[in-house]
User: What shape does this take?
Amino acid sequence: MCAVLCGAQGSVDMGLFAKSKEPFLRGFLKLENGVPSHDTFSRLFRMLDPEQFRAAFQRFMSSFSSSCEGIVAIDGKVLRRSFDKASGKSPLHMVSAWGCEQRLVLAQIATDAKSNEITAIPKLLEMLKLKGAIVTADALNCQRAIAEQIIEQGGDYALALKGNQGTLHRDVEMYLDDPASKTARSEPWVEADHGRIETRTATVSSDIAWLIEAHRWPGLTAVGKVERTREIEGKATFETAYYLLSAPLTPERLNEVARSHWGVENRLHWRLDVVMNEDQDRSRLGNGPHNLAVLRHMAINVMQKDTEKGSLRGKIKRAGWDEAYLARLMALF
Assistant: This one.
């Protein structure tokens, strides 16, 4: 964990870190046989039971948050370099629950392929206390069983809706696009950043008794849509996203919920790829990719809980340069 907090990307880096930081490590480890080699680290992560390691992660997270609050975004990410052609092993696919308000990874689970994400999410939800939370997910995971489980666990959902739900998607689209429908509409929400101007307008309707009767979707009380216009360098693109809601959110709240869902991309997946270089990690044998992914999630959470201001990249550099700061990060465990 010390090595990952300082920017290590695999077993070789961990071995180099151990050699260079041996005096620091001896401050809290006996190291009777000296520091481990990179081969030892590699064997450890290949053989370590990822389920047991994941359980340790959950115990670690319980000290930060006993239950989920606000918006919980569910999304998956493929570790592109973790495939193994020799054994026919597909890339590891990690599905994470991201606490948008806490900006923490609340839980994660691994699958072998994108098609298995739907079956992994029920197990992921079981790890969470959802009472009072709003769970968001993309259209792939807009499934009856997932919606029903969220409701049973005391949460609410805002699920993106696309053509994989066939007639339900068509009915929601026709109803919300009809000017005669009974709906509430928000004022345009304009956001400008990095040369991009984005305007979002949300529409919600809870006058959907006919839709509930026709489709009997678990817990459904309202439907909504968010219309997005993005302008970059004078070129504009337009997109409309439709949602199934288990709570009659205001249009303004739906706008917030839809926007917050993308926090899992910007604040988690982007950081893993760009700052921690996860997509270039060549670990692929045994349980190594899974266990190292859990380590990176833990490191991001610790950096997030550190109260000092600064970017993730800056904190990683400081941890490598300042042993007192690294020790303070480790104390958060």
